[in-house]
């Protein structure tokens, strides 16, 4: 009897799942219409309407578009909103009403390949997606018949939309203000930093793009992954594709820009945003949160996203509406300090008082040390990759640090596949704010070598805590011929308390952050001053 009842329950459960799945499939085609109806109902309550249309790009591709139009005669400033990877224009409905109800025309569209737009994704191709941004602006300013102020156009977006915002702001002079959020400026460094493939993020991006690629094996995304994994002889072609899609290799933005990034974003890490901010010769502002990729701005102007979107609106209000709201008198830089658990204002970037301190790896009394002085005695330490190493920077898609949980390191300073150099206890509190830099002299033992650097805060008692990390993979090496290699670690803000030590751990692998490289590894040269670690530190009184 029990067996029959059990079988009936399983059969009922199986049937229920099938019915629910079928209902979902039937409902899917109607979801965009439902979303459009709900958006319009909200607009009626808040003083705007939402029009749905198909825009035709210059190559004939149809782009599904939502246009938020405020009540009144205008003319109104306008904002182009570009959605994130994997999402559609309806993601922008989390933020568009915030602007539409205050007198902005907002245009959000499905990027090609996504949602119900035509073609397939080309990953911000200058001749496809970036041309689409221009075509959307052409339609808005010349063909729409909407009461738009042509001299007051802005652009914003998160992730994929942030990358579009960087690129479009440099490409189209009609854009008068931009707010890229969690975007890239160097796509190669985002996917393959210093030659190390971010295997976790690469897999995630590929899996979440199956709709947009139409599973075309010749799609740009699949072609890049094939090159990075199997066809290294085509790497030059990959580099050219990356440069065409990276703002760092183009002219700077031609408009004022508010750049928003995050310490724990390990897809589009803060380093490239900081580099772009540093060189930008336009009115600018920098806002660095503590979250992971798009976690802070992705929810819109609610909960923890209120301050971020409030600043974004003040930025657009000043530059597009001409409102004297005092935004330019606000701090040039705001960044999250995890040890204070709050956003803190800084006068500039790098913050005043932050200086690069140089530490040298050496051997003293039989132990590996980091010291402000180097000895003339030269030594070699063999770094061989191991799949069993306890050293890892942890999951790269969701960082524990963004939730206030430290990523622990190994208690031992050396073990299978890694070894470490450690400072003496700190004599005072130090803030580390910015990008740590590592220079290593190496004797490669193979033609291809990967070196990972992990920086830890080591308390007198307890587990080491990861501060930041970096990676580099070198190819075409001549075993036995010394080289000098350099890497930037991911920018961070952290506090090194008095009495704690800093540990530099070198590892032959860092999975799942990077694709491991197996082989004989390399010998690290220490002691003669050629290898060194530079830390951006500021003493705390």
Keywords:
2 domains; 24 strands; 26% helix; 541 residues; alpha+beta; Jelly Rolls; Rossmann fold
Would you mind describing this structure in some detail?
By secondary structure, the chain is of the alpha+beta class. The chain has two domains: 31-346, 3-Layer(aba) Sandwich (Rossmann fold); 355-540, Jelly Rolls (Sandwich), CATH 2.60.120.260. It is built from twelve helices and 24 strands. The protein has helices at residues 2-27, 31-46, 96-100, 129-143, 160-171, 187-191, 199-207, 210-213, 220-229, 235-244, 270-279, 306-321, and strands at residues 48-56, 62-70, 76-82, 105-109, 148-158, 175-181, 257-262, 284-289, 333-337, 342-346, 355-364, 367-371, 379-383, 414-415, 418-422, 429-434, 437-444, 449-458, 465-474, 483-488, 492-496, 501-507, 522-526, 532-540. Strands 1-2-4-3-5-6-7-8-9-10 form a ten-stranded mixed β-sheet, sandwiched between helices. Strands 11, 12, 13, 16, 17, 20, 21, 23 and 24 form a nine-stranded antiparallel β-sheet that branches. It has a five-stranded antiparallel β-sheet with strand order 14-15-22-18-19, with no helix packed on it. Strand 9 (333-337) and strand 10 (342-346) form a beta hairpin. The longest helix has 26 residues, at 2-27.
